Please model this.
Amino acid sequence: MRFRRKPSRTDPSAPRPLPPPESYWGHGGDYHTWVDFLRRWSTGEDGEDADLDARALPPLAESQFLGETWERLTAHLTGAVDVRLRAWAERLVRALAAAPDEFGYGRELAQARTGLREVRSVAGHSGLPAGLRTSLTELVDRHIAEIQQQLERALDDYARAGGDLAQAERRRRTLRDNPLTAATSSPAPGARSSAAPPHGTDPWQSTDPGARPRRRVITD
Model:
């Protein structure tokens, strides 16, 4: 009687084990945790969904997923950040339009930076691969710079249309003294802390109109 030789672990002829079904479809696990968070976070505002905490999100590695799944996850991240930024911008425009004076205008700008730091903390989450983390943070920073430029151009248009030049200059000075782009120089995204900010730094940030992203293939 002849016995078949049991293949060794290094035997190239040995059949490879199949991955579990869940790794093909991507339901549950780290993928689901991230996607569920992003869907809720992208449309939320500060005070809603108090259980949302980006610090609790699990780390992700591109090697965990098949290419198609990783592309879908990246699309979820990019889409959530984009939705959040657009909502932030709309709230900021409304808040600035309602500001009664320069103090109020500056206050709204300072508060809005808190919302931007929230978005950057998700875009630059430490659980994301370095390359994706960098590209998402750069996307957010470009958007911030664009909004800053749009606000300055709006003041130029106001002045050219015959508006009060002194008022335009006061508003421009307030805008430049409280730039949205200051949010891009905040501490490294992903290192968010629940500790209170140091005394004397951005005292107008108490509220936030802009604040409240193994290999698998997924189906949604």
About this structure: Residues 26-44+60-185 form one domain.
